[in-house]
Amino acid sequence: MFVLETTQTDGIAQLSYLIGDTSTGKAAVIDPRTDVDIYLQTARKHGLSITHIFETHIHADFMSGSRSLADRAGSAEIYLSGEDADYKFDGVKVHCGDQFDFGSFTLTARHTPGHTSEHLAFELAEAKHPEMPHAVFTGDSLFVSSAGRPDILGNDQAETLAKQLYETLYNYFLKLEEYVVVYPGHGAGSACGADIGDRLVSTIGYERRTNKSLHFPAFEEFRSFVVDDAPPVPVHYPHLKAVNAAGAELLHRLPTVPALPPSEFRAAGREPGVTIVDTRSMLAFGGGHVPGAINIGDRPELSPWIAQMVDPEQRLLLVVGDDTDVDQITRMIIRVGLTKFAGYLGGGMKAWETSGLPLQVLPQVSVHELHDDLQNGSHFQILDVRSPEEWNAGHVPHAQHQFVADMRQRITGLNKDKPIATYCASGYRANIAASLMQSRGFKHVHNVPGSWSAWTAAGFPVEK
């Protein structure tokens, strides 16, 4: 029996695949994430042995689990692109046209550069008709309603990769049969492509008709669309590229995150090279938190945002809503390559409060209060921390703009002693920004819950 199971990892919007044949007992995993238990459990459920682990390319947005899965699976080999690849660890080199037999089906590698130069896709076909693929695992080359961005390696390589991507899309993918099913490496929410669609699968025929990336007869127009109009590259991508090229560390289990009593937690927070991250909700954080903490709430998007805001060399001290949340939060953090933990606050903020230790608050200001303040001459510095695209589409009158992802490096143009109100789309990113500013000495920072969504829902004026 043929088996195909998709693992969707929320937050980083990553899609990985286990494909197997129960008659031979062999299975392959394509692009495994860091915490690999899910693949082992899936294989056992179907009575399969993971024998092949395929990497479509050197990933930039999550830490690869290939080495950990190979170590845990025992008999599995890692298969890496041999097409202009810069891997620093051992694996079987794969070239365009290489074919792998699993019994009832075959996988055939195709070189699909553009997102990266070494990128591979894998065609899935019945063993008796390997020349007639009925599906293709596209990695980060072709997405639902989008395509892989060619600029993650920097502007100096973007031009060459854009040309390669154009060739890949128009001279490979568009020449496949319309019925071929597309299994991409990411879903909606990933920064590896612009405006990726919500559906997890598609077909070549559907993408031919609806995907904007496939509607440019001339390269120059395509280049402008995928390079000039692309959102900013997340700052943690170069680090993760280097980690995955070198070979991500083996993780036999989750890193140990010890529970620390409040006094020890406070002492650890004063050590150099430590960042305190409070994962509670914005309102809980606003009501009282450990001084100097930044707030990145326990939601799926914690993964990409902690990677954006925290240096990977920092040791993390965590504050969680409940001690039982620690393991799940740790999983979300290690997926983006942060593996150094100093501990977590045992007993949470209740233990901190009853120990008589100092509290810091982050005031919240409603959109109605902010609107009234604007009407009366505005004593707030209003800071929009959304992406440039969101800002350009409309913003609160008299607001200033700084994208929150850039604020880890610099915060400019604001008076530390004057009240500041931060907003984003919903308040999540705004609270990250506000807590970061507060940790850096801004004295009167406020967050706007509901933020832009609440502002527009209330019918307040919009400036462009």
Automatic annotation (TrEMBL):
One Pfam family from the record: Rhodanese
Residue ranges occupied by any Rhodanese domain in the UniProt entry: 270-361, 376-464
GO molecular function annotations of the record: hydrolase activity; metal ion binding; sulfur dioxygenase activity; thiosulfate-cyanide sulfurtransferase activity
SUPFAM superfamilies in the record: Metallo-hydrolase/oxidoreductase, Rhodanese/Cell cycle control phosphatase
Keyword field: Hydrolase, Metal-binding
InterPro entries reported in the protein's UniProt record: Metallo-B-lactamas (IPR001279), Mito_Persulfide_Diox (IPR051682), POD-like_MBL-fold (IPR044528), Rhodanese-like_dom (IPR001763), Rhodanese-like_dom_sf (IPR036873), RibonucZ/Hydroxyglut_hydro (IPR036866), Thiosulphate_STrfase_CS (IPR001307)
GO biological process, one term: hydrogen sulfide metabolic process
EC number(s) given by UniProt: 3.-.-.-
PANTHER family: PERSULFIDE DIOXYGENASE ETHE1, PERSULFIDE DIOXYGENASE ETHE1, MITOCHONDRIAL
Protein name: Beta-lactamase hydrolase-like protein
